[in-house]
Amino acid sequence: xxxxxxxxxxxARILGYALGEGATxxxxxxxxxxxxxxxxxxxxxxxxxAGIALSISLIxxxxxxxxxxxxxxxxxxxxxxxxxYILWGGIGLALTFFLVWLxxxxxxxxxxxxxxxxxxxxxxxxxxxVFGIPYNALGFEICPGYEDRSRLQGIRMAFNQAVNLLFGAxxxxxxxxxQTGADGARIDGTTVTGxxxxxxxxxxxFALVLILLCVAATRFSAKDNRGAHLEGNTIQAFWRDLTxxxxxxxxxxxxxxxxxxxxxxxxxxxxQMFTYVFFMKLPADAKTMVHGGGMVAFAIGALLQSWLTxxxxxxxxxxxxxxxxxVGGLSLFVMFMGGFLKPESSLALGGLTIPIGFVAFAxxxxxxxxxxxxxxxxxxxxxxxxxxxNFLKTGVLKxxxxxxxxxxxxxxxxxxxxxxxxxxxxxxxxxxxxxxQTPQAAFNIAVMTFLSGPALVIFSFLIxxxxxxxxxxxxxxxxxxxxxxxxxGG
Length: 490
Prior knowledge:
Strand 3 (347-349) and strand 4 (352-354) form a beta hairpin. It is globular, with a radius of gyration of 23 Å. It has a single domain (13-489), classed as MFS general substrate transporter like domains (Growth Hormone, Chain: A). The strands form 2 sheets. It has a two-stranded antiparallel ribbon. It has a two-stranded antiparallel sheet with strand order 3-4. It is mainly α and 490 residues long. It is built from 14 helices and 4 strands.
C-alpha cells in the first residue's frame, strides 16, 4: 500500500501492540539500571570484568539479530511470521531475566562469577532476539503510513518509559529502601543482595503478563501465510538480504546517526547511577524522583516527536531532540563542575528551604532524557521508512531484516559502550564493593556523566545532516516508480 494512502491506525490497536514494549522495558531497562551496581557493589565483581561480560552478551545478541530478521521474514505458519516468535521468545525472556538476579552466593571466585554473569546475560539476550526482532517488524506492518509510524513508535516508547518509571525509578523505593544497621549506621538498599532477588521475582511476573496481553491484543495479525511465496531460510537468501542492506547508502546515514546517539544514551544511563550514589549522595526517595523525572521526560519527548514530525518532518525533529540533550548535559557540567552549585546547595525562602542543587540536577537530567525520548522512536520510524523504500523498489518485504540490521548496529555500539563504561568507572577511581568513595572519584564520575553524552550527540548531528529521506522524498519515489511501471505496462 502507498505510504501516502495508508489509513490511520486506531490508538487502541497501537496501545495493544505497545504492551509488548513493557516487557522489553522491564527486562532490558532492569539490567541497564541495576546490573552494574549489583555485579560490582554486591557481588564484588570488578567493574571492567562486569563491563566485559555485559559487552560480550550484547555483541553476541547483535550478531544473531540479522539471522533472526531473515528467519522471521521467511517463516510460514498458520499464525503468520511474527506472533509465534513473540509468544515463545517472550516467555523465555521473562524466565531468563529472573535468572540474572539468582546468581549463586556460594562462590567468591572472580572467574566463576564472571562465567555466571556472562551465561545469564547471554540467555536473556538470546530470548530478547527471538522476541524483539519479530516484535519490531510487526510494528512496521501495523502502521504502514509515514506519519503513523512516528505515532506508533512514540506511543511505544512512551509506554516503555511509563513501565520503566513504575519498575525502574520506583524500584529505588519499592525494593532498595535504605536500612539501619545494628550500630545505627545507614545501609544503602542497593548493597543488600536479597533486594535484587525480590525485584527479579516481581519484574519477571509482570513481564510475562504483559507479553501474554500483547499476544492477545495483536492476534488479528495471526494470518495463515503458509501459501505465501518466500525466499526461504537458506544461507544464500540470508546473504542476499544482508548484502542488499549493507549496500543501502541512505540506510547507513540513519544507522550511523542513531548508533552514536544510542552509544551516548548507554554511557549516561550506566554511569549516572554512580553519580546518584557517590556524587549527589541521594537517598532512595530522591533517586526515585530524579530517575523517574528522566523517564517522564523521555516519555513526553517520545509523544512530542510525533507532533513535531507532522509539522516539521523527521530530520528537523531530530535536530530538536539533539539540542535538548546537549543543553541538558552541558548545563549540568557548567553548574556543578564550574562551581556555581554543589550537590547539597540550598536556598532559603522565608521558612522554606529549596534544595537547588538537587532541583538543578533533576531538571538537567530530565532535559537530557527528554531529547533522547525524541530521538529513539524517531529513528525506529525512519527504519520503517527505509524498509518501505526497499519494498517500493523491489517488491520484497524485508521489515524483519531492516529492523534486525538496525538493532545489530545499535547493539554493537551498546556493547562497546558497556565495555567503555567499565573502563570509565575504573578510570574515575570508583572502587568495586566500597560503601564510600573518594571525593575525587565522585567528582570524576560526575564529569563523565555530564560530558560523555553531549560530546557524542555532536558527532551524531553531523551524520544526520546527510540523511535525505522525508515525506516529499517518499512521495516523489512513489510517483516516479508508478510512472515507470505505467510506462513498462504500456
